[in-house]
Amino acid sequence: MLRAVLHVDMDAFYASVEQHDDPSLAGKPLIVGGTEGRGVVAAASYEVRKYGVHSAMPMSTALRLCPHAACVRPRMQRYKDVSAQVFSVFHEITPLVQGLSLDEAFLDVTASRDLLGDAVTIARRIKSRIHELTGLTASVGVATNKLVAKIASDLAKPDGLTIVPEERIREVLDPLSVRRLPGLGRKTGARVEAAGIHTLAELRSAPDQVLRPLFGRYTQRVRERAAGLDDRPVVPDREEKSLSAEDTFERDIGDSRVAQAELTRIAGLACERLRHKQLMAGCIGVKIRRGDFVTFTRQRAVAPPTHDGRTIASVARELLGRWLTEHPGAKLRLLGVVLTDLSPASQLGLFEDTPPHTTRLDAALDEARARFGSGALRRGNTFK
Q1: How far from 200 is each of 97, 154, 192, 352, 353, CA to CA, in Å?
Q2: pLDDT tens, 216-256?
Q3: Which of helix, strand or coil describes residue 266?
Q4: What is the value of pTM for the model shown?
Q5: Rg from Cα positions in the chain
Q6: Residue 10 pairs with which residues in a beta bridge?
Q7: Contact assessment for residue 229 and residue 170, using Cβ atoms and an 8 Å cutoff
Q8: What is the C-alpha to C-alpha distance for residues 220 and 227, in angstroms, rounded to an integer?
Q9: C-alpha–C-alpha distance, residues 216 and 100, integer Å
Q10: What's residue 242's pLDDT?
Q11: How many Å apart are CA 255 and CA 261, to the nearest integer?
Q12: Strands (DSSP E) found in the chain
């Protein structure tokens, strides 16, 4: 029996949430992102995309392209709340939900068809239910595998529904640009086009002597993907392999005391996320990017694993301190804390209201931030 796989992708998610919450922004060019210094575009409404604005673009560039665009700062907690509503719809349909981000997921609805109807009926039900709960639209791709479903969901945005039956995969994919292949990347896509390959049909049929210099040992896999072949299962609740927090500064930091204070703040954010997911870290790392964009990493294993804020911040500061000693006078553009070797924290006891090994201070910080926002309460050593 052929599988039935959906790829659901919310349309311009952050921007759509802002336009829904503030009707005065509806239909207008809208950019979600920081406007100060090195701010970047977190999301762009469809109205502003017509000017060439897209996510991850420097805000200064975006505003040159569309000077009259409205700009709003991201509200991550609001987006997480809406995302929870969206994912609740997915779980009404099937337990086989593989989230890719706050606004995107694969669903295997093969076993749901006996009860809920065919895959297209289920897709329409999901779109309708999401709109009913959130007022937002989603685009859905329906196919027999994840790859084709993901490509399909992007073909008729916004508010699209694209069905690609098994027998029509090549008919639909062959004329598409190679840039439509998920995971290809902009740089690789440009190299492929420079080699004279512009469509998925050309990529699928290109000889080894053309593809091997581009893809090496992955040549056969790329050829299969271009033909729409993909046997990967939908994997629900993917295991967390790492967790991180980082910040790019408006101005490069040359003062070590300021850098250490910023790193302590960032470590606190990473720890908050770790505790929220009830995980412990067995390895603590720092990410350091100089003003010239050269990036360094340092890490250290800790035993036993921890999610204690003071412990993780202390190790992170030690790693940064050693690096600063090795690179005197360095100016820093970005700092991050990376937590790996993750393991589940112990289950809460019947009468416990905070995860084990969580200090009262950490618990108070978590509660205040959950209620009043991430900047509501800070440790004293995060102030410069």
Answers
A1: 28, 15, 11, 56, 54
A2: 888 999 999 999 999 999 988 656 678 999 999 989 999 99
A3: helix
A4: 0.66
A5: 23
A6: 138
A7: no
A8: 11
A9: 27
A10: 84
A11: 10
A12: 5-10, 30-33, 41-44, 70-72, 97-101, 104-108, 138-143, 161-163, 242-253, 279-290, 295-306, 332-344
Q: Distance (Å, rounded) from C-alpha 80 to C-alpha 74? A: 11
Q: Are 286 and 297 in contact (CB under 8 A)?
A: yes
CB distance 152 to 142 below 8 Å: yes
What is the C-alpha to C-alpha distance for residues 262 and 256, in angstroms, rounded to an integer?
Answer: 10
pLDDT of 358: 47
Q: Which of 290, 272, 286 is nearest to 316 (CA)?
A: 286
Query: How far apart are alpha carbons 370 and 17 in whole angstroms?
Result: 20
Domains, the chain, with CATH or none: 1-165 (3.30.70.270), 174-226 (1.10.150.20), 242-382 (3.30.1490.100)
C-alpha distances (whole Å) from 25 to each of 10, 19, 219, 247 are 18, 5, 46, 28
- What is the side-by-side strand order in the sheet with 104-108? 97-101, 104-108, 5-10, 138-143, 161-163
Helix axes 360-372, 256-276, angle to 10 degrees: 80
Of 81, 70, 85, 67, residue with least CA distance to 15? 70
- Enumerate the active-site residues: 104
**CA angle (339, 341, 283) in 5-degree steps:** 55
The Cβ-side half-sphere exposure at 95, using a 13 Å CA radius, reads 0
The residues of the chain scoring below 70 in pLDDT are: 36-38, 237-240, 345-384
CA distances to 58, 116, 149, 330 from 384, rounded to whole Å, are 27, 58, 49, 18
* Per-residue confidence (pLDDT) for residue 240, from 0 to 100: 66
Tokens of 200: 């998925």
* Tokens 């929870």, residue located: 84
